[in-house]
Amino acid sequence: MALIVQKYGGSSIANPERIKKVAKRIVATKRRGKQLVVVVSALGDTTDRLIKLANQVSDKPAEREIDMLVSTGEQISAALLAMAIQSLHSQAISFTGPQVGIVTDSSHTRARILSINTKRIREELKRDRIVIIAGFQGSDVKDNITTLGRGGSDLTAVALAGMLKAGCCEIYSDVEGVYTADPKIVPQARKLRALSYDEILEMASLGAQVLQNRAVEVAKKFNVPIRVRSSFSRGRGTLITREAKSMEKAVVSGVTLNKNEAKVSLRGVPDRPGIAARVFKTIADKDININMIIQNVGSRGISDISFTVMKGDLGKTLAVVKRVAKDIGARGVNFNEDIAKVSVVGVGMQSHPGIAARMFASLAAQGINIEMISTSEIKISCIIAKKHAEKAVRAIHAKFGLGRKK
Ligand code: ASP
Ligand code: MG
Questions:
Q1: Considering its fold, how many domains does the chain have in total?
Q2: Is 108 within a domain?
Q3: How far is CA 90 from CA 78, 130, 164, in A?
Q4: Which residue owns the Cα nearest ligand 1 atom 5?
Q5: Across-strand partners of 261?
Q6: Which of 105, 153, 347, 379 supports an S-S bond with 41, CB 3.0-4.6 Å?
């Protein structure tokens, strides 16, 4: 019998009406002859509310206790959904993560799944029950409850789908799927029918945030097809698999925008071996992630180095960089927070030349200056002034003809 894993996000089950709707949908799927494992998030914004409560009773709540607390959100959802399904005269049973043998390491609030013992789940499926599992949680070898990081229910669902060899992992939320750009910025943005793991990984890290990145990594490892779809409609959503190239012939799949980075420049750096190594080692030692780097061609033994970091790391970064700048005799350090990164992503660009040129041309046509560029096999990113961000996304989206056909 075909087995599918479904995951419902917080907005899909935010209140009793929605829970009942989801229950109906699940029962209908079951009647079509599927075996079903359903993973749930906490209702609505429960997790945020619980974290707020923790911070109201303590300045520094222990991470172990945070996990004890926030894991309850998903447990509530699982029990309520099981009840709603039972009231439709279908058989369902709910479990917490630890109850179905989801074992993690002990890194509270960001634990990694080590193993899943699927015995109990298989037994219940054999009894023809719909198995509901609280997402986002597990327990370590000492039975401490752990959670998998924000958005971790996606990871629970994908990991279970991998272990149970499910045919598909369906991720339900309030969006119809993955779009060619943020529809709030580009009204003509089109929903993609198919996408590859690598593309969604690039899009998520660039700010498209539809699926937890770690979940996609696990899906890729176990080759689990994911379908991102809305629980509020009948749409087929976006299918994410290893190779989506043949399904949609577009060279570029989407345009993304990220405003969370800041640029740091070291001016007048001595141009000789070992300097870049020294600068970036000092930064890495402080656990700061660098995103883009450019170094200008040196002249008269001197060059400039610029790079970007997450805005949240800017203060920390400037402190170390100013110190190294002095040590190596650089002329000065600047920074700029008013930048944005626009990127085009697509597996098709590996076999199509000229994508970068077209992207730059569309920015030039808008009179937008490019401050930095970086490329990978399936992505080209440009740093531009923040005030041009939305205009840039729209221009690039149009240039590649990504919008809906009228
Ligand atoms: N409830 C958790 C969160 O809000 C996990 C999830 O929704 O996937 O992050
Ligand atoms: Mg969520």
A1: 1
A2: yes
A3: 15, 8, 22
A4: 151
A5: 310
A6: 153
